[in-house]
Design a protein that fits this description.
Blueprint (H helix, E strand, L loop, with lengths): L8 E6 L2 E6 L4 H7 L23 E4 L6 E2 L10 E3 L3 H17 L7 H9 L9 E2 L23 E2 L13 E3 L9 H6 L9 E4 L6 E4 L15 H5 L5 E3 H9 L8 E6 L8 E7 L2 E6 L13 H5 L16
Length: 315
């Protein structure tokens, strides 16, 4: 197999310090190479950046607007500032908007740390509104508007969608990062079972024509779960254990193994708690999977054990 031609190195200035990165690298790559802590939410190493959350924005000399570090390519002699008042103000507002309208309590510990470092205070937008009824947000049409109450904080709170035994959709945790849409589309599965419906605050992740999941194109690969940063998409096993108060990541072990279902060689990360498999993931940097699996690899652990033993569903 022929080797790729070596990439030319370019010099980029990050906060007054020069860093050398390969041509084609992003500003985020340059920031990381320089050790600059840059907040992200919609970015993932195994997906195409689409600039949804805008929390990684930076100032670039000569640019009128702030630019997303995750997708903007670094250019020779580019001068980038990551910690100006303008950058910090923008990032703080993004965090406040997301944390005020969405339940981000299951987001990464980094997200909570960033919110603290930037002084994000979502409570200043008022008291959270009452959750929507089941299906109410799904029925809203483009152009839907209502008079806002300045004392009430609009949220996407709604009941959890539990319609299968593999995973749940808890859209009150959805920040519309688009990661699930990308994983379902050209970046991984090429199934295109989900997309974004609606406009503005009514925008939401939906199946085609909002049909039930089992009537959609979904193949239950679970790659959407693998990339979700907030717990909006979650293994049903994890959801049930969290509801019971028994989910304990500190008590879990992770064992790497190879999926036995076919000869592709996908690497699995088997998460075990109390001697039972509770979920399966795959490393983002694995050369075969890039973090993505099929239904057998992600959910086939039911073959190894029966979670139904505890409630009498199976012998």
């Amino acid at each position: 197999m022929p080797l790729d031609a070596p990439k030319r190195l370019i010099d980029v200035e990050i906060d007054g310090r020069t860093v050398r990165v390969p041509e084609g690298a992003t500003i985020l790559d340059a920031c990381r190479a320089q050790g600059v802590d840059t907040p992200t939410m919609c970015y993932a190493d195994n997906l195409t950046p689409i600039n949804a959350c805008r929390v990684c924005v930076v100032e670039v000399e000569g640019s009128r607007v702030l630019v997303p570090a995750c997708s903007r390519r670094a250019e020779p002699e580019m001068k980038v500032k990551t910690d100006t008042e303008r950058v910090r103000h923008s990032r703080k507002l993004v965090m406040e908007f997301l944390d005020s309208s969405v339940d981000t309590t299951l987001a990464s510990t980094d997200w909570r740390r960033w919110a603290g470092e930037y002084g994000a205070d979502p409570s200043r937008f008022g008291v959270a509104m009452e959750p929507s009824d089941a299906g109410e947000r799904d029925e809203r049409s483009p152009g839907h508007h209502h008079d806002p109450d300045p004392a009430v904080m609009e949220t996407v709170a709604q009941p959890v969608k539990v319609d299968n035994e593999l995973y749940v959709r808890d859209y009150e945790r959805c920040v519309l990062c688009y990661k699930c849409v990308e994983a379902c589309g050209v970046d991984a599965q090429n199934t295109f079972a989900i997309a974004v419906a609606g406009r503005g605050f009514d925008a939401r992740i939906s199946t085609e024509f909002a049909v039930p999941l089992d009537e959609s194109a979904c193949v239950y690969c679970g790659n959407c779960i693998g990339v979700c940063p907030t717990g909006a998409l979650m293994f049903k096993s994890e959801h049930d254990m969290r509801a019971d108060g028994t989910w304990d990541e500190d008590a879990q072990t992770v064992t790497n193994t190879i999926c036995p279902y076919c000869g592709v060689g996908c690497e699995l990360e088997v998460h075990v708690q109390d001697n039972e498999i509770v979920k399966v993931s795959s490393p983002e940097d694995h050369s075969v999977t890039s973090g993505h699996l099929c239904i057998k690899g992600r959910f086939g652990f039911a073959y190894v054990q029966s979670r139904g033993k505890r409630d009498g569903r199976r012998p």
